[in-house]
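Q: What residues go here?
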């Protein structure tokens, strides 16, 4: 072989090695293989696979989104290390692997699953976006909860399922309107979390669903004038603000469930009109609070139809 051919072959080998090193070191954004689409999201624009096959999700709403669309993520972050996958989503998540928590996703565990798409939230994981993007094409929604419908459509777009998502949302909206709760009185939403009680306002996930169904809210829970109308803390001394014609309450975690049991056994709770009238209902926190998706929203409508519809 001539010296010129040897030198050319060596140059090709060096170039190939450099590309491999670049890909393995994570020095740049990971790009999708095969046909792609460009998706605009909270962090810019990302080229994603036409049909992602191995998806990792980093927020609870995206679990609901994927299952609602007939898909299952290969990996998902947990609200905390002891969290189980939501029961209301059935067996769709049986094979899903845990990849850290919402606040601290485990990069090694994510990379080991070889995802071709990562779905997350700027609100929770902005600081991890660059690292995640080196593992796989990454799409972030902006906020959580209050923008659940927009988030669902964006996640669905990244998954190549936007038309299906639009149909699911339209069906949800039609059913919500059909409940016509405008003559049903007020609906109160209360949640026990470790260390405090919250009342949920009109821009929270469950508050939006109740509003879509036409139900009015107690005046204190409208949170008029508040900078954040998702929720406000509620002390036992002003527990009367938890009252409504119908009251839905839930607890996040075992510690909060114990606090709920203590409060609901007390005289201030028992004096609430909804409690006296038998219209206070203990509901599933995974559905009313952490589901944040179209399937969870449908199950909230089930509760409203069962307990609050006139």
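A:
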């Amino acid at each position: 072989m001539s010296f010129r051919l040897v030198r050319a072959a060596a140059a090709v080998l060096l170039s190939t090695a450099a590309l491999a090193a670049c890909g393995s070191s994570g020095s740049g954004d990971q790009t999708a293989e095969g046909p792609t689409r460009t998706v605009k999201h909270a962090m810019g624009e990302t080229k994603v696979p036409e049909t992602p096959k191995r998806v990792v999700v980093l927020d609870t709403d995206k679990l609901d989104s994927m299952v609602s669309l007939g898909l299952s993520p290969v990996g998902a972050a947990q609200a905390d290390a002891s969290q189980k996958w939501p029961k209301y989503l059935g067996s769709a998540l049986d094979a899903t692997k845990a990849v850290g928590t919402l606040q601290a996703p485990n990069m090694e565990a994510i990379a080991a699953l070889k995802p071709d798409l990562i779905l997350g939230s700027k609100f929770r994981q902005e600081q991890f976006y660059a690292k995640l993007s080196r593992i796989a094409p990454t799409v972030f929604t902006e906020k959580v909860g209050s923008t659940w419908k927009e988030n669902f459509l964006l996640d669905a777009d990244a998954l190549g399922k936007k038309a299906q998502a639009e149909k699911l949302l339209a069906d949800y909206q039609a059913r919500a309107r059909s409940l016509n709760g405008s003559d049903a009185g007020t609906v109160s939403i209360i949640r026990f979390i470790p260390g405090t009680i919250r009342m949920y306002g009109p821009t929270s996930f469950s508050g939006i669903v109740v509003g879509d169904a036409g139900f009015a809210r107690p005046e204190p829970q409208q949170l008029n004038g508040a900078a954040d109308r998702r929720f406000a803390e509620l002390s036992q001394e002003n527990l009367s603000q938890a009252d409504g014609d119908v009251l839905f309450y839930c607890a996040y975690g075992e510690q909060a469930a114990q606090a709920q049991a203590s409060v609901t056994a007390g005289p201030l709770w028992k004096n609430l009109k909804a409690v006296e009238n038998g219209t206070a209902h203990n509901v599933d926190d995974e559905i009313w609070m952490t589901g944040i998706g179209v399937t969870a929203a449908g199950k909230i409508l089930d509760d409203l139809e069962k307990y609050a519809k006139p």
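A: Context that may help when evaluating the design: The longest strand covers residues 187-193. Residues 29 and 133 are 5 Å apart (CA to CA).
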